Amino acid sequence: MPPSTYAAPVRLILFGVRGSTPSPGLDFVRYGGHTSCVGIVPEGGTTPTLVLDAGTGLRELTPFLAGAPFHGSILVSHLHWDHVQGLPFFAAGDRPDAKVDLHVPAQNARTGRDLLAAAMAPPNFPITPEGLEGQWSFSAIDAGYHTIEGFRVRATDVQHKGGRTFGYRVSDDTGSMAYIPDHVVSHGIDDAVRDLILDVDVLLHDAQFLDRERPTADNYGHSTVEDAVRLARECGVRHLVLFHHSPARKDEALDEISGMYPPEFVTVAAQGGVIEVRRP
Ligand SMILES: [Zn+2]
Ligand SMILES: [Zn+2]
Question: For residue 47, how far is its CA from the centre of ligand 2 (angstroms)?
């Protein structure tokens, strides 16, 4: 028999799938209550080296690493609480042998450290970013192309509300994924955003609201489930993962949404889920 050339594909681990604020309780057990955080396991790897957003779901990465420190990078889409509040509770990253490079969208000519410290410093929080143990770096990155943890990363501005927000496309030679957790699309979608997700193998997209909740979606700077499906179809996305659920959306309601679309095209993100990224 020839030696096996099979390597496990790039995998996305969904550590947190909610928007706005965590949603604990019996009505949210199956889809999970943690806010946005997705780990990317490289081809052939077993644990994430690149993490998208640091919502409360980031806490789930620590047991996943089974006692090992985190060595890798965190890409933050924007600085709203539901995308950064897991940081100071990330035990695998907050220890002397951890090594973490964190990237946030550049804005207002401030350093990455200072952008984070606007919410993470006394009196808002007991420690500043430097209070995290281990070797941390905090950088403010621009839109465009980057190489991070061996992945090609493209950062593009997306319309949201209150501060600069990036969508990311992450790819290697085996496949591509795009991550746009917060995005208002009802006023038009930028060509650059369409290009970001064009023909991508997997798209994780904001699906916080439903079309019947349009006024709230627009006011909060978010998309509806129907917006996300429309956009994915228009841009040749191979598989759409509905992400950043409303904290009020109960398990039964998410089951209903799941039943509206073919499973080979649409997955409703559930905490603990694993999505393979592989070009067919
Ligand atoms: Zn959000
Ligand atoms: Zn937001």
Answer: 27
